[in-house]
Design a protein that fits this description.
Strand content: under 5%
Helix content: over 70%
Number of strands: 0
Radius of gyration: 10 Å
Order of helices and strands: HHH
Structural class: mainly alpha
C-alpha cells in the first residue's frame, strides 16, 4: 500500500478532520502524480464505504 495512503488512514483513525488535505499537501511536494491519484482514490473508497483487498 502507498505510504501516503497508509498515513491518511492512520490520521483518519486519529479523527483528524484535516487528514486528507494535510497528507495531500505533503504528497504534492513529491511531484509524483501516482501518489496523488492513489490518495484521491483511497479517499473516495473510504467515503463510499468501498473496501478493496490489496
Amino acid at each position: 500500500m502507498n505510504q501516503f495512503v497508509c498515513l491518511y488512514k492512520h490520521e483518519l483513525q486519529r479523527n483528524n478532520p484535516n487528514a486528507f488535505q494535510n497528507i495531500y499537501d505533503i504528497a504534492s511536494m513529491t511531484g509524483n502524480k501516482l501518489d496523488l491519484q492513489l490518495l484521491k482514490q483511497a479517499r473516495e473508497e473510504l467515503e463510499h464505504g468501498i473496501t478493496r483487498v490489496s
